[in-house]
């Protein structure tokens, strides 16, 4: 399968300045993709674009991965209905390190170069920027962009000169990478189309040469119709400090049947044959959730590595009653303890239930025990015992407590 065919089949085609997408199937080219350090981690929306980048690399194109140290100091106004709060320099620096580390993980074993646009903006003077960049972008074109109209039109919250200038900064990134690295293509999500076009315009005007943009659609949740990766708890992050490995794994395990086929195409490197097989199996026997299990496994492996995947799979089996809690290692117990209420062992069962919020009072806890509503390590509790060893207590179908 050629790159253009791969991108079409996996759903990575939105807008492009290329007259024919099969141009991607010819000579290797240098392209770039960037993430601003608005947080110390990518979320699953960024990750979809990262997977698209993987296909460009796998088909022989040279990747430049940009960490937006300069743009991160301003904040992209696109998609925002009010001004962003500026982040402290120290936070931007920490976030840059986090994003770069995730590049290294997701693209491990691949050829790529990481750059930071702060490196070429830090010594640029204001007058230089106006002469070299601002002079060559039309205000008319910038004002015509939808997100600008929404901010300055009737009912809009307004926009600062700093955020208005964001598109110029990103446009100069493309010019710099064109001149210094030979980059002729920028890839991004659909929401970055306008910013990307700024770079194409600057290169055309200053260099008299063509440059191109390729964007992919934003991934939408087929069940809700909203942007994918947004949950009741907020965004789903790649950093386990922000989204635990367990919650990350469970997120993919619980995607809907209607969308799992498309998510497999976007978020995994599985072959067309294997993905089509999984889609067919899900249609025939949706309760087995085989496609979701493979999706969760593949993505967690890529993002968190083999050791964390094995641990979260084991913890999941414990919660589903397929493995005993005694089989968990100390590290796996820590993973489990982060997800459910935890008390110290040698606690009375009734007191542990109250402490964990699974019963309102000692009396209620004892009534639950007497009515066979509580189990310890898979065995129904018949009396209010002392929890003398590491134990997994279960109330009803889905309420858990760990004593350790």
Give a structural overview.
The protein is an alpha/beta fold. The chain has three domains: 3-216, Rossmann fold (3-Layer(aba) Sandwich); 230-322, Tyrosyl-Transfer RNA Synthetase (Orthogonal Bundle), CATH 1.10.240.10; 342-403, Structural Genomics Hypothetical 15.5 Kd Protein In mrcA-pckA Intergenic Region, Chain A. It has 17 helices and 14 strands. It has helices at residues 3-10, 44-58, 89-106, 118-121, 126-132, 139-143, 146-152, 161-164, 166-181, 193-207, 245-253, 257-267, 272-284, 290-319, 330-337, 349-355, 362-370; strands at 30-35, 62-67, 112-116, 183-189, 212-216, 230-231, 234-235, 342-343, 347-348, 374-376, 379-380, 386-387, 391-395, 399-403. It has a five-stranded parallel beta sheet with strand order 3-2-1-4-5, sandwiched between helices. Strands 8-14-13-10-11 form a five-stranded mixed beta sheet, with helices on one face. It has a two-stranded antiparallel ribbon with strand order 6-7. Strand 1, helix 2 (44-58) and strand 2 form a beta-alpha-beta unit. The longest helix has 30 residues, at 290-319. The termini are far apart. The mean pLDDT is 90.
List key phrases describing it:
404 residues, alpha/beta, Rossmann fold, Tyrosyl-Transfer RNA Synthetase, Structural Genomics Hypothetical 15.5 Kd Protein In mrcA-pckA Intergenic Region, Chain A, five-stranded parallel β-sheet, five-stranded mixed β-sheet, 14 strands, 46% helix
């Amino acid at each position: 399968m050629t790159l253009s065919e791969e991108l079409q089949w996996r759903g990575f085609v939105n807008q492009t300045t290329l007259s024919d997408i099969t141009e991607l199937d010819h000579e290797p080219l240098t392209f770039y993709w960037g993430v601003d350090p608005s947080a110390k981690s990518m979320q699953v929306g960024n990750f979809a674009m990262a997977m698209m980048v993987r296909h460009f690399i796998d088909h022989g194109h040279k990747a430049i991965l940009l960490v937006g140290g300069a743009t991160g100091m301003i904040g992209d106004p696109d998609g925002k209905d009010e001004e962003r709060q500026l982040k402290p320099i120290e936070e931007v620096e920490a976030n840059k390190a986090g994003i770069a580390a995730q590049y290294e993980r997701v693209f491990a074993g691949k050829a790529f170069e990481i750059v930071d646009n702060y490196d070429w903006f830090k010594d640029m003077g204001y007058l230089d920027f106006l002469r070299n960049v601002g002079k060559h972008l039309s205000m008319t074109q910038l004002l015509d962009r939808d997100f600008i109209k929404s901010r300055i039109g009737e009912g809009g919250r307004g926009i600062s000169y700093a955020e208005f200038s964001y598109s110029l900064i990103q446009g100069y990134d493309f010019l710099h990478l064109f001149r210094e690295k030979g980059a002729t293509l920028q890839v991004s999500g659909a929401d970055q189309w306008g910013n990307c076009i700024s770079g194409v315009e600057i290169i055309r005007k200053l260099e008299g040469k063509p440059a191109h943009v390729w964007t992919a659609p934003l991934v939408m949740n087929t069940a809700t119709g909203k942007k994918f990766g947004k949950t009741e708890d907020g965004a789903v992050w790649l950093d386990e400090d922000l989204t635990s490995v367990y919650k990350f794994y469970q997120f993919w395990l619980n995607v809907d049947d209607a969308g799992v086929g498309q998510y497999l195409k976007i978020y995994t490197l599985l072959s067309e044959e294997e993905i089509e097989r999984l889609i067919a199996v899900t249609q025939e026997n949706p309760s087995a959730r085989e496609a979701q299990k493979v999706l969760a496994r593949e993505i967690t492996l890529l993002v968190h590595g083999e050791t964390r995947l094995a641990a979260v799979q084991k913890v999941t089996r414990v919660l589903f009653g397929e493995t005993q809690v005694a089989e968990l290692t100390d590290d796996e117990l820590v993973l489990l303890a982060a997800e459910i209420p935890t008390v110290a062992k040698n606690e009375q069962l009734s007191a542990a239930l109250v402490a964990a919020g699974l019963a309102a009072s000692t009396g209620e806890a004892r009534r639950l025990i007497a009515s066979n509503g509580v189990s310890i390590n898979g065995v129904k509790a018949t009396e209010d015992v002392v929890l003398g060893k590491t134990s997994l207590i279960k109330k009803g179908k889905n309420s858990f407590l760990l004593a350790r």
